[in-house]
Design brief:
Blueprint (H helix, E strand, L loop, with lengths): L1 E4 L4 E4 L7 E6 L10 H19 L3 E6 L6 H10 L3 H18 L15 H13 L3 E3 L5 E3 L15 H7 L14 E6 L14 E3 L1 H13 L3 E7 L3 H16 L4 E7 L2 E3 L2 E2 L10 H8 L1 H9 L7 E2 L2 H27 L7 H8 L1 H13 L4 H18 L6 H18 L5 H22 L3 H13 L2 E6 L2 E6 L1
Parallel strand pairs: 3-4, 3-9, 9-10, 11-13
Antiparallel strand pairs: 1-2, 5-6, 6-7, 7-8, 11-12, 14-15
The structure holds adenosine monophosphate and zinc ion.
Amino acid sequence: MEIYNSMTRRKEEFVPIEEGKVKMYACGPTVYNLIHVGNARPIILFDVLRRYLEYRGYEVTFVQNFTDVDDKIIKRANEEGITSQQVAEKYIQEYFTDAKGLGVRPATIHPKATETMDEIIAFVQTLIEKGYAYAVPSGDVYYRTLKFKGYGKLSHQPIEDLQSGARIDINDEKENPLDFALWKAAKPGEPYWDSPWGQGRPGWHIECSAMNRKFLGPTIDIHCGGEDLQFPHHENEIAQSEAANGVPFAHYWMHNGFLNIDNKKMSKSLGNFFTVRDAAAVYGYEPIRMFMLSAHYRTPLNYSRESLEQAQAALERLYTAKDNLTFLADNGAQGGPNAAEQAVLEQADSFRERFDAAMDDDFNTADAVSVLFEVVRAANKAVGEEPTREGAAALLKLVLEFTDVLGLLYGREEESLDDKVEALIAQRQQARKERNWAEADRIRDELKAMGITLMDTKQGVQWKKD
Ligand code: AMP
Ligand code: ZN
């Protein structure tokens, strides 16, 4: 399995630190608003990465943080007249709603900055003791960037370029313009924690270094995030972690390319974004996932109505195949498989090899999806004439093997049950209006047989699954 490592700018064979295990970390969202479709790109792709590693037999520990203390959260809290903790809690729940909709499994651990405060403070203290950080009279603590010899190695920027580009602020208490904040003294009205440097809160970068060490140890296998995080965020994480721990921080760095709109990065600051919530209301959640898989994670991807509609159509073909094979597995000719079905089943290994080869080549989901569609076309054709139950069942299993790894075909069951129940309830209401009590009772019984109980309330008919 080869991974393109942003640090070395080459594809490298993946060798885990510990055989059979993978420790991976992805920088998660700052929870002050709904995520947009650009934010969904890393979330979906690193979920696929994790699923694929598990499919290949690795035991994966996946950590994704929530930045739950930050200027933007504080600003939002002040605007809404609630605490920043309330803002964070709200948007963490909203994150999980969208993640679930997108078929993204919860990480192994979702740490929060506010729950890692002891480790963050201890981390800053170590950096001060080792001479990599210094506190200033105001109560801020800064990282002494020039002391770290490898600074710039991830983003491939010579330190001289960074120095000439750095902004100099005359009021600065920093020793050098390149130094960055590890700890910020609290301003009036801001949330704060007690520390050896007074009341304050952590900078953004230190949070990830402290969480990595706490949950995964000093060296991890894979660190991921969007391409815009390479500098300064990941560069600073490396400087902090390697200075404090004295060992390499991450063996592989993976960065996804941008989701663009009209060839510009979709972003909050440009205002050219759609929230996942709004996009899902138009296209559905699962087509967004399908759309993201259609391109390699490092290439730019353009968001447009056409590309989302294409993804919808592609997904529809998968569902049609699944529904058809499911039907035939119950209603085809007894026994099987027949010769046509057998011929496709005999190619299973070669399909698997090609699927794995695509994914092993730096997680080329675009090629993996093509293999999936080849399997689907072959299966559809094989059951075109005299389908057998066993043949259809085996072909269905084969198709689902690939969709499971990619995390597709998860979205319909609930929806179709909901739709069916709602439709039956509407029919029952109509029957009651027409005073057709027998029909209304019959529908109630039909729902009962589906495991649905109806409750006639003042607000209308409600239902629950038994
Ligand atoms: P932000 O909300 O900007 O802090 O971003 C959260 C995560 O989403 C980071 O990993 C970013 O790199 C990623 N991200 C933000 N915008 C985009 C985009 N347009 N395309 C791809 N990734 C993005
Ligand atoms: Zn981070």
